[in-house]
Amino acid sequence: MFDVIIAGCGPTGALLAAELRLHDVRVLVLEKETEPGSFVRVVSLHMRSLELMAMRGLLDRLLEHGRRRPVGGIFAAIPKPAPEGLDSAHAYLLGIPQPVVNRLLEDHATGLGAQVRRGCAVAGFEQDDQGVTVELAGGERLRSRYLVGCDGARSTVRKLLGVGFPGEPARTETLMGEMKATASPEEIAAKVTEIRETHRQFWLRPFGEGIYSVVVPAAEVRDRAEPPTLEDFRQQLCAIAGTDFGVHSPRWLSRFGDATRLAEQYRAGRVLLAGDAAHIHPPAGGQGLNLGVQDAVNLGWKLAAQVRGRAPETLLDTYHAERHPVAEAVLDNTRAQVALSSAEPGARAVRRLLTELMDFDEVNRYLIEKITAIDIRYDFGEGPGLLGRRLRDVELTEGHLYDRLHRGRGLVLDRTGRLAVAGWADRVDLIADPAAAVDVPALLLRPDGYVAWIGEHQQELEDHLARWFGGPGRPPNST
């Protein structure tokens, strides 16, 4: 009997497993692929995701394998520098191979005690008041208290659950891959500059050693399960640029469309959805992986509290209430970015206008904060502007705030020296530091780094501790 079974061991599933293990939840991750993916696609981790990795002590390991890039120019690829003074200690993008992210997060989860079984696909499940019975493709049946579908855009869990997935099907498709090219860097750069005047979904970006990231519009929309060939790239490069640049030796080839869909609900009883199983959208702005790992950190501590029997009645429902609107906003901004990439005259005119508007610092800052998810504010009721927002990695008298969040617990940062968390000390830490770099008397930070309360009175603090972490005293060990 497991506490939680997770379908899918991509970044979302692996990080969710790790978050659950921080609270001693018995976790099994089922991955239908027998081996980790070998393609070397480079992805970008955004500011909020980098903050979450720092909060769990993972960032240094990721930095060893990635390359920092400026955070400017990521909205619709409009080339504007990042505004100064972004509210993060990690105001950059980290370009990193996705297999490295997958491996590090899976190692993190298994190092904490999560079990991962490869070559195991979910074929069916039934849920009741006590748990979920999961049937594997080979006929084996497993029992768990909860099931979470992190199994991608074609999620079997979502389909079996019968959750609606409304939105728009793909109307256009783009080829993406990494490969070598024999044309000179000067020739490639000049031709790309010329083509991008009218085709925004076109580029060849150098990675070094003759390797380029190649993006080119496809001739037609096909089944994504059918991988493109190098010849497909050559034909489309010739059709649009008049040359194939001598591309050869691909490292990986893929295709993506502009399908945009959002699950109607993230939870149905004891079954939940996260990552691409809950939302799909074009890769404009590089938000997909980031949205998924942020789902995982939002859900992990809440589901753990439910399993451990200390969750307030409505805590698990806040997962959908908080993350569904965030995904809606991401879907809308990717729709806008795709529209701005069109070669149609109207879209090009709007792009020119927005390019001018982004010269205003407020506009540029607004769009970058939106794409990188540091603008999110959850609705925790009336209160100061910081309430419901993430807190940057502030300096303490000794060290930094994020170093105190590695265990995934709540935290009270008290500058008054008068507050206590005695009844919640098994799940909430207290830092009494009058010199902490915040301009409020005290605050309560959730395990996902969002400010849940601001004030200075003990009774108010206890009311909010109960709201987010259940009643005082030791809870039962199970639901």
From TrEMBL:
Keyword Flavoprotein appears in the UniProt entry: yes
InterPro entries: FAD-bd, FAD/NAD-bd_sf, RIFMO-like
Entry GO MF terms: FAD binding; oxidoreductase activity, acting on paired donors, with incorporation or reduction of molecular oxygen, NAD(P)H as one donor, and incorporation of one atom of oxygen
Origin superkingdom: Bacteria
Swiss-Prot/TrEMBL cofactor(s): FAD
Gene3D superfamilies assigned: 3.30.70.2450, 3.40.30.120, FAD/NAD(P)-binding domain
Boundaries of every FAD-binding domain copy: 2-334
A Pfam family hit: FAD_binding_3
Record carries keyword Phosphoprotein: no
Keywords: FAD, Flavoprotein, Monooxygenase, Oxidoreductase
PANTHER family in UniProt: BINDING MONOOXYGENASE, PUTATIVE (JCVI)-RELATED, TRK SYSTEM POTASSIUM UPTAKE PROTEIN
NCBIfam families in UniProt: rif_monoox
Name of the protein this chain belongs to: Monooxygenase
Originating organism: Amycolatopsis vastitatis
